[in-house]
């Protein structure tokens, strides 16, 4: 494959977004996008019970779950 054609192929793949048909397709890119979409969707809907963030020193800090007062 020539360098120019390689760049075109990379740009085509990099610009690709998830489509619902990806669950039915057999290519590696579609399978990866479908799996990533499912993981993100699960994480979004389930949420995080004990969510933490990591500070600059590498220590985990729990995010408090407070309601509106």
Low-confidence stretches: none
Label the overall shape.
elongated
Q: Number of helix segments?
A: 2
Helicity level, as a percent range?
Answer: 40-55%
- Chain-averaged pLDDT: 79
Biggest pleated-sheet summary: 2 strands, antiparallel
In whole angstroms, how far apart are the ends? 62 Å
Number of separate domains: 1
Pattern of helices and strands: HHEE
Instruction: Tell how many strands the DSSP assignment holds.
Output: 2
Strand content: 5-15%
The neighbouring-strand order within the major sheet is 1-2
- Going by helix content, strand content and strand pairing, the class is mainly alpha
What integer value in Å does the Rg equal?
A: 19 Å
Describe this structure in words.
By secondary structure, the chain is mostly helical. The N and C termini lie far apart (62 Å). It has helices at 3-14, 28-46; strands at 52-54, 60-62. It has two helices and two strands. The model has no long low-confidence stretch (mean pLDDT 79). Strands 1-2 form a two-stranded antiparallel ribbon. It has one domain.
């Amino acid at each position: 494959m020539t360098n120019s054609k390689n760049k075109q192929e990379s740009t085509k793949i990099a610009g690709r977004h998830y489509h619902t048909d990806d669950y039915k397709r057999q290519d590696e890119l579609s399978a990866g996008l479908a799996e990533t979409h499912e993981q993100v969707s699960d994480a979004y809907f389930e949420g995080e019970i004990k969510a933490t963030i990591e500070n600059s020193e590498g220590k985990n800090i729990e995010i408090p779950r407070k309601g509106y007062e």
